[in-house]
Amino acid sequence: MADLRHLRQDFPILDRTVNGKRLVYLDSAATTQKPRSVIEAIDHYYRTSNANVHRGAYTLSVEATEAYENARAKVADFIGATDSDELVFTRGTTTGINFVAYGWGLNHLTEGDRIVLTGMEHHSNIVPWQLVARHTGAELAYLPINEDYEVSLDDLDTVVNSRTKIVALSGMSNVTGAFGPVAAVSAAARSVGAITVVDAAQAVPHAPLDVALLGVDFLAFSGHKMLGPTGTGGLWGRRDRLEEMEPTEGGGEMISDVGLYESTWAPIPHKFEAGTPNIAGAVGLGAAVDYLSKVGMSEVRSHERALTKYGIEQLSAVPHLTIHGPADLDNRGGVISFQLADVHPHDIATILDQEGVAVRAGHHCAKPLMRSLGVPATARASFYLYNTPEDVDALVAALHHALELFGVS
Ligand code: 7TS
After folding, report:
1. Is residue 26 in some structural domain?
2. Best substitution site from 89, 93, 123, 226 to test ligand 1's pocket, by max atoms within 8 Å of Cβ?
3. Are residues 306 and 271 in the same domain?
4. Which DSSP string do the residues of 217-276 spell out, in sequence order?
5. Which residues form the pocket of ligand 1, taking CB atoms under 6 Å from any ligand atom?
6. Same domain flag for 167 and 80
7. What ligand 1 atom has the least distance to the C-alpha of 96?
8. Dihedral of the CA atoms 369, 371, 372, 377 (nearest 10)?
9. For residues 96, 97, 99 and 105, what is the CA-based torsion angle, rounded to 10 degrees?
10. Which atom of ligand 1 is found nearest the CA of 29?
11. What's residue 167's pLDDT?
């Protein structure tokens, strides 16, 4: 296992205790903890350079604008975008997908057109498309998941048909950890002239990713799931796609000219960034990608792969425990959803919390996927670069404790 243990000291929150126990944070799929460098970058920005961007001719405003645009360049570079104009700052993955659904979908879909999704999507990659389908008369079609928890490509060529205009899929499930078949699906989409939108909320933070090689049209991700602050994220789009996409929010900062009845837009990416942006958030996200780049995304991936292997082995040895996710480590990331006997996942999470272990329980905003799994909810442990085998051991010990409490033998 790539030993990243030394990184733990960079995360102040990991020093705290919860219910008298060492904090074992296993909910990074929901949001990640923040290293000191990110916290300090935000603090430093507010202490030294705070002003609004793209406006004033005075020093502070110029510095704030530079900090904001430098962050854009860093984040663009981090995902392999050669042109930082192709990176729109958003509030997170949800906002990014909604921008594409309303800004591109609404203007390119007509009745009878098809939007293809998969059976393992988060609600934020389902509901915006349902809304746009309702507005346009387009229909939704799904690539289902198979018994290995993977998106089935058996009917790819019939589901992605000549009426398909948009295919949207997750790079990695936040429930099962399964990777999405982005390359195969985007090739099928391209062959019928459809665009591909990737929900990369769980992909960008955990492995090297290069939009220049992926061959997709849009890719949305969240800053807070990759060590950055909440309320930050990115939407990358190919230049031509962003140029043909309409803004969905109007206001200051996003215009070229405004008349009484008509307006024209600023060039990309600014036409999608109406109003005063989250400047400090962008600065924090820039510091987060600096941190991740210094560690190295290949290191992050190999650390999490090894930790997932260990986690699956150890959890599989717990009596009455069922894991919902692929066995193939090359096709999955560090998210492990499980059931423990017939104990409700919320009860599991509460008992684990007594031991200082933070896991999420519920439907994980993926209700259609939960229905395919045949369960209303799961408990879920998710890893990041600061987790260790000792964290897995603490989880397993707490689960044994839960079995005792519930009298399951
Ligand atoms: N897509 C996936 C695959 C996600 O896991 C999430 C958030 C989102 C989209 C939405 O991201 P947001 O930053 O806009 O909220 N997933 C989770 C989770 O698994 N637990 O809490 C949030």
Report:
1. no
2. 93
3. no
4. SEEEEEGGGTTS-TT-EEEEE-HHHHHHSPPSS-STTSEEEE-SS-EEEPSTTGGG--SS
5. 29-30, 92-94, 122, 124-125, 170, 174, 199, 201-202, 222, 360, 364-365
6. yes
7. 14
8. 70
9. 160
10. 19
11. 98
CATH number of the domain to which 399 belongs? 3.90.1150.10
What are the φ and ψ backbone dihedral angles of 63, each rounded to 5 degrees? -65, -45
For residue 263 the two structure tokens come to 């307006």
Confirm whether 28 is domain-assigned. Answer: no
Look at ligand 1, atom 4, and give the residue with the nearest C-alpha: 201
What is the gyration radius of the CA atoms in the chain, in angstroms?
22
Q: What is the rounded CA–CA span in Å between residue 348 and residue 345?
A: 5
**Whether residue 345 lies in the annotated active site:** no
> CA 140, CA 129: separation in Å to the nearest integer?
8
Global pTM exceeds 0.90: yes
What does the alpha-carbon distance between residue 269 and residue 254 come to, in Å, rounded to a whole number? 9
Kindly state the DSSP code that residue 57 receives in the 8-state scheme.
S
Distance 30 CA to ligand 1 centre (A): 6
Q: Whose CA is nearest to atom 18 of ligand 1?
A: 30
Q: What is the tally of structural domains in the chain?
A: 2
Residue ending a domain, among 234, 260, 293, is 293
Ligand 1: which atom is nearest the Cα of residue 224? 13
201 and 110 in a single domain? The answer is: yes
Q: Which two tokens stand for residue 390?
A: 């000792």
pLDDT mean for each 10 residues of the chain (409 residues): 88 97 98 98 97 89 96 98 97 98 98 98 98 98 97 98 98 98 98 98 98 96 98 98 97 96 97 97 98 98 98 97 97 98 95 98 96 95 98 98 90
Write out the residue range of the structural domain in which residue 100 sits: 39-293
The answer to whether position 10 is within a domain reads no
In the set 365, 369, 377, 385, the catalytic residue is 365
